[in-house]
């Protein structure tokens, strides 16, 4: 456990630096996601991956599971985003607000895929420069292709903000079972 403390301290410092930077942004991505949720049903269950200070949970009526490595607030579940205690297929909206980009982002998305219900939403907000090959960032098309290959479909993209981009995806419905009509025209599960 002793080795974990410097790591947690580092995350705390990173969060403080990030919050200071955000203060200078004309618009916060978490506000756009809050508005999106308010435009949809309050019955949607949300998982906020890398929630920071859990502002999203405080801003909407929805049930929000706030998840972060660092839990400064008792409402935040302290966990790694790649291994959360949430039940499979229990969540309608998975949010990654400035918390996805990292070497193991596919493990975070696999976890989101696990906890999302079929056709559940995946909302991603990310710093624009991180998805701009001209500034050393990733190629947004390759990034989105990799996400879709994990099991999501693209619904819409928003590049209108100067500081961040927003992606709206949905979990693909998988047809694991094959249903066929038999000779008496009864629908039967074949596998
Ligand atoms: C830039 S902050 C974004 C906070 C919040 N989503 C917002 O928009 O205000 C990124 C957050 O992701 C968290 N984070 C980074 N890696 C994580 C991991 N593996 N598991 C859980 N949280 C993680 C950090 O602790 C930090 O709070």
From TrEMBL:
Domain of life where this protein originates: Eukaryota
Protein name, entry field: Ribosomal RNA-processing protein 8
EC assignment: 2.1.1.-
Location (main, coarse): nucleus
Species of provenance: Capsicum annuum (Capsicum pepper)
Function: Probable methyltransferase required to silence rDNA.
Membership in a protein family: Belongs to the methyltransferase superfamily. RRP8 family.
Keywords: Methyltransferase, Nucleus, rRNA processing, S-adenosyl-L-methionine, Transferase
UniProt GO MF annotations: methyltransferase activity
Subcellular location: Nucleus, Nucleolus
GO BP: any one term: methylation
InterPro entries linked to this entry: RRP8, SAM-dependent_MTases_sf
Matching PANTHER family: RIBOSOMAL RNA-PROCESSING PROTEIN 8
Origin organism lineage: Eukaryota, Viridiplantae, Streptophyta, Embryophyta, Tracheophyta
Enzyme category, top tier: transferase
GO cellular component: nucleolus
């Amino acid at each position: 456990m002793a080795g974990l403390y410097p790591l947690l301290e580092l995350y705390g410092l990173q969060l403080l630096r990030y919050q200071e930077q955000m203060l200078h942004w004309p618009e916060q991505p978490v506000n756009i996601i809050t508005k999106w949720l308010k435009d949809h049903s309050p019955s949607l269950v949300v998982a906020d991956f890398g929630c920071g200070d859990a502002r999203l949970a405080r801003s909407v009526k929805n049930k929000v599971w706030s998840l972060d490595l660092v839990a400064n607030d008792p409402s935040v579940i302290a966990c790694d985003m790649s291994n959360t205690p949430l039940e499979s297929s229990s969540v309608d909206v998975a949010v990654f607000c400035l918390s996805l980009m990292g070497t193991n982002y596919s493990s975070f998305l696999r976890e989101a895929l696990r906890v999302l219900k079929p056709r559940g939403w995946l909302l991603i907000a990310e710093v624009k420069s991180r998805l701009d090959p001209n500034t050393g960032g990733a190629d947004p098309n390759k990034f989105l292709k990799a996400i879709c290959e994990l099991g999501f479909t693209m619904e819409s993209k928003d590049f209108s903000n100067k500081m961040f981009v927003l992606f709206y995806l949905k979990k693909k419905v998988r047809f694991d079972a094959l249903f066929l009509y038999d000779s008496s025209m009864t629908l039967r599960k074949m596998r």
